[in-house]
Amino acid sequence: MSNIPADLKYAKSHEWLKMAADGTALVGITDYAQNSLGDITFVQVPKVGTALRAGETFGVVESVKAASDVYAPVAGTVLEVNKALDANPEKVNQSPYEEGWMLKLKLTNPADAFALLGAEDYGKLTA
Amino acid sequence: MVDFAGWDMPVQYRSILEEHKAVRTRCGLFDVSHMGEADVKGPEALKFLQHLVTNDCSKLFPGRVLYTVMCYPHGGVVDDLLVYMRGEGDYLLCINAGNIAKDITWMQEQAKGFNCTVVDRSPDYAQLAVQGPTAAALVQTLTRTNLADLKYYHFTNGEVAGVPCIISRTGYTGEDGVELYCASADGVRLAEAVVAAGGPFGLELTGLGARDSLRLEAGFPLYGHEITELITPITAGLGWVVKFDKGPFIGSDVLKAEKEKGSAKKIVFFKTGDRRIVRAETPVLNAAGEAVGRVVSGTLSPIINEAIGSALVEAAVVKDSLAVDIRGTLLKLHLVKPPFVPLKKN
């Protein structure tokens, strides 16, 4: 049974979004996603300043088994990327919702987050 | 779980990387019951095997194991296999799961005219591989057979946890260890006994993922990758298992000509200094960006922490600067002679 924190928003493509009050959000991949991929060996993220459209590929998460695209859950501009993943991509496996975050986004329209799935619906999707 | 040659097999139990490291530092248990077995028996069994395979089976004696390949007349590989000599005119072959039907048909066809029989025994055997620096010590707690007397590529009949087994000091990881062949019906009991005794030895259950990364790190070929119907053992760098001085065998003319003239293509092993995995079928590029080959195996070495792999390239380019394009990043290939890590065989 995968861990699905109640306070996050989820995309059908298995990314999570953690909103902050200032209209920024952290983005990563879910526990379900990291578990499906297996040992993560490489995480490729965009440059700071990149403008992403909702649903656009923002990078690649690579595991021993496969390389998978990851998608921006909402439109926004990249404010920060998690540099720690360069040397320790396994943090995505170990701590997908905390240390394994990938991007900090400035949302183009913070209300877009409400269109994403809640924990309950995401749980149904991955059941 | 994945379908592998018709078997439902685990790619991993816990983590491919952790399972891999366990085999390099402690030990792992692989269920390799999918592997095929065949009996070759009869007064002309040796004569037949000398005709069938590239290595010299006359060097075998009871209790000795030989690694070899068998080829088509055009030099491509039918399969790679282990030959166990049990006694005069009595051999056991261990073949790849995905090739059982093809191999048995091929061997029975080639055996016509020899006074011997080839019988598929694959359903009769379960096989467990216990591999790693502590593997022999673990299995020793379950058997009266003195494993210190059983050298690399030797085997004996014995009992492990009360289960009659062929105990073979072989493996596909580059580590010390044993492969245990027992009756299919005893396989679960034997596996449970190894697991129950495994705690003090740091035993980890290990799946197909780790099996592949361990063999690649050791520089061992995998059928369908480094050797295929279209890749000869000479091209694959397996010239050491091709013995022309034993007399003619299937494919010997073609292989000899290739050895003398030089191969048009070569299997090379590489590392990249980067963690991005270079997967099979990735084109290999020369300095001008032209494709001069393709990757045939690729993974991340959990030990050296960088991508490793093998590629089939035009022989003329092996001294050139080679690279691969991984999602827009050009990564240089550093050619190396495997193993990628120091190995500690028995």
Explain how this protein is built.
The complex is a heterodimer of chains A (127) and B (346). Chain A is α+β, with helices and mostly antiparallel strands and 127 residues long. Chain A has a single domain, classed as RNA polymerase II/Efflux pump adaptor protein, barrel-sandwich hybrid domain (OB fold (Dihydrolipoamide Acetyltransferase, E2P)). Chain A has four helices and nine strands. In chain A, strands 1-2-3-9-8-5 form a six-stranded antiparallel sheet. A three-stranded antiparallel sheet of chain A has the order 4-6-7. In chain A, a hairpin with a 4-residue loop joins strand 2 (15-19) and strand 3. The termini of chain A are close together. Chain B is α+β, with helices and mostly antiparallel strands and 346 residues long. Chain B has two domains: 1-261, Gyrase A, domain 2 (2-Layer Sandwich); 264-338, Aminomethyltransferase beta-barrel domains (Elongation Factor Tu (Ef-tu), domain 3), CATH 2.40.30. Chain B has helices at 16-25, 45-52, 100-110, 135-140, 187-198, 208-218, 252-261; strands spanning 2-4, 7-9, 27-31, 36-41, 65-71, 77-87, 90-95, 117-120, 125-131, 155-160, 163-168, 177-183, 203-205, 265-271, 283-285, 291-301, 306-314, 322-326, 329-336. In chain B, helix 1 (16-25) packs across helix 6. The model of chain B has no long low-confidence stretch (mean pLDDT 97). The interface between A and B is medium-sized, with 13 and 15 residues.
Major sheet of chain B: size, sense and barrel closure?
A: 6 strands, mixed
Q: Please compute the radius of gyration of chain B using only Cα atoms.
A: 20 Å
Instruction: Write down the overall geometry of chain B.
Output: globular
CATH class of the largest domain in chain B: Alpha Beta
Total number of β-strand segments of chain A? 9
* Separation of the first and last Cα atoms of chain B: 32 Å
